[in-house]
Each structure stands twice: as structure tokens, then as C-alpha cells.
Design goal:
mainly alpha
């Protein structure tokens, strides 16, 4: 007899003392699958929103970079444009990071609702 057989026998002996309802196991597996699907859909929705936000931010940044790199007649004009673009980029970063925070908060709230709903 191998060690595996001994372990298997010990498990069967231990659990044979406790009544197990196959329907409850099936129901638990069903609820787990539903919860997993709902959590996955919440995550996918959050990732989609983050990608949209990233696209917006990228397009804004490229537009600003274009302003800076356009040919300027003199150094003062270039300096002024660079200063304006830098200021606008900082403000934009705050707005976009706030949007990412809101997306994360919403995903967290939805996930919590899902998990608490299944705990009932």
C-alpha cells in the first residue's frame, strides 16, 4: 500500500462522518461561478474606461507637444508656449488622475456590492 492510498483512506474516513449534501455543493459552485462572472465583468468595464481615459490623455498630450514643436520665430515665443503647455499639462494630469481614481472607486464599490450580495 502506498502513502497516497493511506491519505485517501484517511480522508474518506474523516469525511464519511459528516453528511454532505450534493445539492449544496452544486449550489455553492453555481454561486461561485456567478460571482466570478460578475467580478470579471466589473474589472473589464473598469479597464475599458481606463483605456478610454488614457486615449483622451494621450491625444491631449500629443496636441500640446505639437504646439511646442511647431516652428517659432523667436526664443521668447517658444519659451512662452512651453510654459503654457507645461502649466496646461499639469492641470490635465490632475484631471485625468482624478478620473482614474473615480473609475477605481466605482469598480471597488461594484465589487463590494457583488460580494456582499452573494454573502446573503
Amino acid at each position: 500500500m502506498t502513502k497516497f492510498d493511506k491519505v485517501t483512506t484517511a480522508w474518506f474516513d474523516a469525511f464519511s462522518r459528516y453528511p454532505i449534501d450534493p445539492a449544496s455543493i452544486s449550489e455553492a459552485a453555481r454561486k461561485s461561478a456567478i460571482t466570478g462572472e460578475a467580478i470579471a465583468m466589473t474589472a473589464i468595464k473598469a479597464v475599458e474606461k481606463c483605456n478610454e481615459q488614457t486615449g483622451k490623455w494621450t491625444l491631449e498630450s500629443l496636441g500640446r507637444a505639437k504646439q511646442v514643436f511647431e516652428a517659432h520665430q523667436n526664443f521668447d515665443e517658444f519659451t512662452k508656449t512651453a510654459k503654457e503647455v507645461t502649466s496646461a499639462s499639469v492641470e490635465s494630469a490632475v484631471e485625468h488622475l482624478t478620473a482614474y481614481t473615480e473609475i477605481a472607486k466605482q469598480a471597488q464599490a461594484e465589487s463590494t456590492d457583488i460580494l456582499l450580495g452573494n454573502a446573503k
